[in-house]
Write a structure and sequence with these properties.
This protein has eleven helices and 14 strands. The chain has 402 residues and is an alpha/beta fold. It has three domains: 76 residues, no CATH class; 74 residues; 218 residues, Alpha/Beta hydrolase fold, catalytic domain (Rossmann fold, 3-Layer(aba) Sandwich). The strands form two sheets. It has an eight-stranded mixed β-sheet, sandwiched between helices. A six-stranded antiparallel β-barrel has the order 1-2-5-4-3-6.
Length: 402
């Protein structure tokens, strides 16, 4: 009987140890899986993706009209563009003329064809261009354009320089400059929409590349830093403006370009030259954007939170591929609203599917003394101008001539 009880106790201990080991192994596997998922999500956010595949189908082309397969983008109101022939060609599209069927279920939409700038517009694949314009300011808008270079800590960067319109009431070399910053993964053409208004108001405009852009030097890690290093490239562009005679600088930023502008206002020794800021669909708080994108891609909340912690930890640099930790908290300008001191026009659509409008509205509520907030409806991410270019231009003119 005594030996039987000892045997039973030994069996129970072995069973308990086995169960504990199984739980530990399961926990380890779960943690390893979460770590891998969080690392992957972080890398996706931080890694430039220069290759953009065709994403729309041209069904038919007629005089003054083009029919496309219906998607969320192709049925949107406003004016847009199409990249043709893998990006070598371009066409400009206007209002929707007719729709048949639903989105992504064999439906089509016919839009007004405003012009073919280059290449051949014919049935087949194409790529949606939210910028509307394509090419240099000279090619797209017939504005005289020079290509200039300026040095940043990653190497020489290039910018498009557009002088102001000739006006006898303005000095020949104006001391008012605008520096325009495009968003994450975008092209410089994103900024062209602002040029006509700036040109007419007598601003010299500079549209720079920044690190990791196609045609620009990479950062040391080849990763986006969410504005926390890219601001140095904006500062280099601002320095070029100052050395060229700028006394006043207005900064424009779209999407992540807004995050870059906000960091420059905080960290650059040239921020006292900035007299105004115009932000379009800006990233005011990267944590909010990351939470939104995780939910949109069905990434569990704990995995998204872990990814933010990883990119901020020096010990996890190799996991996420960054050279220096990225402190996402430094990009929360709702919390840091009291640190802002520059007048700002903030344009953001309530229907933005990529960068939620909440932080923009919250920042405006925190700093009504500085921020003029203009909400849009219907427009998707950074497409406020496309939906209502007249209103966009009017607001910018009013802000700059206040």
């Amino acid at each position: 009987m005594h030996r039987s009880r000892q045997t039973a106790r030994r069996t129970a201990r072995r069973t308990a140890l086995a169960a504990t080991g199984a739980v530990a192994a399961s926990t380890l596997l779960s943690w390893t899986g979460s770590l891998a998922a969080a690392s992957y999500f972080a890398r996706r956010v931080l890694t430039p993706d220069p290759e953009r595949p065709d994403d729309v189908v041209v069904v038919a082309v007629a005089d003054g009209a083009v029919t496309l397969a219906a998607t969320v983008d192709t049925v949107a109101p406003g004016c847009y563009g199409l990249w043709l022939d893998g990006g070598a060609g371009h066409a400009r599209l206007g209002d929707v003329l007719e729709r048949e069927g639903g989105i992504d279920h064999g439906g089509t939409v016919t839009r007004k064809l405003l012009g073919v700038d280059s290449g051949r517009l014919e049935p087949g694949p194409a790529r949606w261009n939210q910028y509307f314009y394509a090419g240099t300011p000279q090619e797209a808008l017939q504005l005289p354009t020079k290509t200039v270079q300026f040095a940043s800590d990653v190497g020489d960067l290039e910018g498009w320089l557009v002088p102001p319109a000739a006006d006898p009431t303005l000095p020949a070399d104006t001391d008012r400059w605008a520096v325009l910053v495009h968003g994450r993964g975008a092209r410089r053409e994103e900024c062209l929409r602002a040029l006509p208004a700036l040109h007419e108001l007598g601003y010299t405009s500079l549209i720079p590349l920044y690190r990791n852009d196609v045609g620009a030097p990479p950062s040391p890690d080849g990763r986006y830093n969410l504005g926390l290093s890219e601001w140095k490239d904006l500062e280099a562009a601002m320095l070029h403006a100052v050395e060229s005679g700028a006394q006043e600088i207005v900064l424009f930023g779209w999407s992540m370009g807004g995050a870059i502008v906000l960091q420059a206002l905080d960290l650059s020794w040239l921020s006292d030259r900035v007299t105004g800021v115009v932000l379009d669909a800006p990233v005011i708080d990267w944590a909010d954007v990351l939470r939104h994108q995780a939910a949109a891609h069905q990434v569990p909340g704990p995995v998204e939170l872990l990814s933010r912690r990883l990119i901020g930890r020096r010990a996890a640099r190799r996991l996420v591929g960054v050279h220096d930790p990225i402190d996402v908290a430094r990009t929360d300008w709702v919390s840091r609203a009291d640190e802002l001191s520059h007048p700002m026009l903030l344009i953001h659509s309530e229907d933005d599917e990529f960068v939620p409008v909440g932080p923009s509205a919250a920042l405006a509520a925190r700093r009504p003394d500085l921020v003029r907030y203009e909400p849009w409806q219907v427009a998707r991410h950074t497409k406020e101008w496309n939906v209502d270019p007249g209103r966009w231009d009017r607001l910018v003119r009013e802000f700059l001539t206040r």
